[in-house]
Amino acid sequence: MTTQSGTAAMSKATQDCVEACMACHTVCEETMSSCMQMGGGQAQMQIMRTLIDCSEMTRMCADMMMRRSPMAAEMCALCARACDLCAEACMSMPDDAQMTRCAEACRRCAERCRAMAGAAM
Asked: H or E segment at 2?
């Protein structure tokens, strides 16, 4: 499949992964805002660091896939790891609806990124 400019169109799997990364990035940003409003101690700061890492990784991963970086597959593997860590951190507060929503977005993104890490881009 090619576009009018002659470049190959992104595969459905790549598009799905980019969308999952951007959705995860957005939810992580929203969750950071929620955390800042809550305040909190050392545990909250650790969650914030994890959220920041995940937010940045997912944005960068999506960017790399969209520009067809030769390092995109490696980035997807690293992004999946950041998402797994973030989901785990968010689930340390299972009664918080925003944290649960973030963990779910992170898990979806991690799953898609792991699939892309094993695929040729």
From this structure: none
